[in-house]
Specification:
CATH class of one domain: Alpha Beta
Distance between the termini: 56 Å
CATH architecture of one domain: 2-Layer Sandwich
Largest sheet: 7 strands, mixed
Number of strands: 24
Strand content: 15-25%
Structural class: alpha/beta
Shape: globular
């Protein structure tokens, strides 16, 4: 049996799975947590990787890393990390995003340059913040990497840093139209050019580990999840994790001047238009904390309430928001009366608000000409019985829930198997998915959209 490994360098933890290269069967796995932070010393990632992989990698023939997108890892000329990595969920560069959009000529220019309009999560905006606010440290920077680039390079026995087109497409300085980096945009943001890693092909071998395992190029976490799920055109993924994402495979790049849809590339040579929200599963945990109950009780309460939560509507911008781009926003609870002020209605409003925000993302993909005929619901939030029950009606498409699995890490492992095989296509791994049947939700989305639209001027 040939054995491969995939690493998920996530926001909250590092996960490692070891799989049969032919079938994708998970043979063993490990996990190690990260601190809850928006900036982090990359050495924490290495320590978490060593802990998560301890005792797992004997006999592994190939390995690949999937990482959280957009982070900024700045290195000096000898490869030393200059400052803690700024993570995707660090919003201090929000004003830098506004400045950069204006300086290049507006949202439409950016969309047609790199497929996306910069927001605070993108690496290009973090470079601007870094250059302007930490000048002495910025003067030392020679190279900028993404989190998966950094860990892949740390694993590599020798050779120069590499990236892949999927993760590179989330930086704000790689073009899905020309399939190349835009060093001029790095210079616009940072004041000078920085060395950028070479963009490896989708199944290219980029080196070996010190133990002799082949290294795949790795990719971003969303691209890896698509690969792990075997996503096909016409299918979309709604992932409810730390962030909420909606993405689908497309045969051509997209360019949305509104900035709602990010025009990413995928890990196979195609494209992955994506909508991201900052507020997803933690909306449910925050509701549980507010009510003083376990998460499972939030499910029970939500399912006991009527659709529409008695007129209570939650706009769940608890940590600011990326879609719409309102980094300074906070949540809003609308329609509160003495009659509907109950734990059950609040729980129901939280689930409905979470799903309505993601449904806006599904609509945005369709507006870009991306077909969405079926939705695969994944992530920690997909374990919620209330989320599963309400999803088909609120998301506006048939929903199936794949078997619980670490799809980001599985996608990395599948890429490793692909690189090892040297085949034109990834290996065929079966992913069972179970359809979800649910009743109609009533006028929930209309109420949500009304609150969202009325609140827009106040929140921004």
């Amino acid at each position: 049996m040939t054995v491969v490994a995939g690493v998920d360098l996530g926001t909250q933890s590092t996960k490692v799975v070891v799989c049969d290269a032919d079938t994708g069967e998970v043979l063993r796995s490990g996990v190690a947590p990260h601190p809850d932070a928006t900036e982090l010393d990359p050495r924490v990632w290495w320590e978490a990787y060593e802990t998560a992989s301890a005792g797992l990698l004997d006999g592994v023939a190939a390995l690949a890393v999937a990482g959280q997108q957009h982070g900024m890892v700045a290195l000096d000329p000898v490869g030393t990390v200059v400052r803690p990595a700024l993570l995707w969920n660090d919003t201090r560069s929000a004003s830098a995003a506004v400045d950069l959009i204006h300086e290049l000529g507006g949202p439409e220019v950016w969309a047609h340059a790199v497929g996306s309009v910069p927001v605070a999560s993108f690496t290009v905006t973090k470079l601007r913040w870094f250059a302007w606010h930490e000048t002495t440290l910025a003067d030392r920077a020679a190279t900028v990497l993404l989190p998966h680039d950094w860990l892949t390079h740390r694993l590599r026995a020798s050779g120069a840093p590499t990236t892949d087109r999927g993760d590179a497409s989330g930086t704000g300085y790689w073009s899905p139209f020309g399939e190349h980096h835009r060093p001029d945009l790095v210079a616009l943001a940072f004041g000078r050019e920085l060395a950028l890693p070479r963009v490896a092909g989708p199944a290219e071998i980029v080196g070996e580990t010190r133990s002799g395992a082949v290294l795949g190029p790795g990719t971003g976490d969303n691209m890896a999840a698509a690969l792990g799920l075997g996503l096909r055109p016409g299918e979309a993924v709604v992932s409810i994790g730390t962030s909420g994402t909606v993405f689908a495979v497309a045969d051509r790049p997209t360019a949305d001047p509104s900035g709602t849809v990010a025009g990413f590339a995928d890990a196979t040579g195609r494209y992955l238009p994506l909508v991201c929200t900052l507020n997803a599963a933690r909306v449910l945990s925050a509701t549980a904390n507010l009510l003083g109950v376990p998460l499972s009780t939030v499910d029970d309460l939500a399912l006991s309430a009527e659709p529409g939560a008695g007129g209570l509507t939650l706009l769940p911008y608890l940590d600011g928001e990326r879609t719409p781009n309102l980094p300074g926003a906070r949540g809003l609870l609308g329609g509160l009366t003495r009659t509907n002020a109950s734990p059950a209605n609040l729980a129901r409003a939280a689930v409905e608000g979470l799903l309505c925000g993601l449904a806006d993302g599904v609509d945005a993909l369709r507006a870009q000409g991306v077909p969405v005929d079926r939705i695969l619901l994944i992530g920690g939030g997909a374990a919620s019985a209330a989320v599963r029950a309400l999803a088909p009606a609120l998301l506006g498409a048939p929903v199936a829930v794949p078997e619980p699995a670490e799809y980001v890490a599985l996608g990395a492992a599948r890429q490793a198997a692909w690189a090892l095989a040297g085949a034109p296509e990834p290996p065929q791994w079966t992913v069972p998915a179970h359809p979800v049947h649910a009743p109609a939700a009533g006028p929930v989305r209309a109420a949500y959209q009304d609150l969202r639209d009325r609140a827009w001027d106040v929140l921004r």
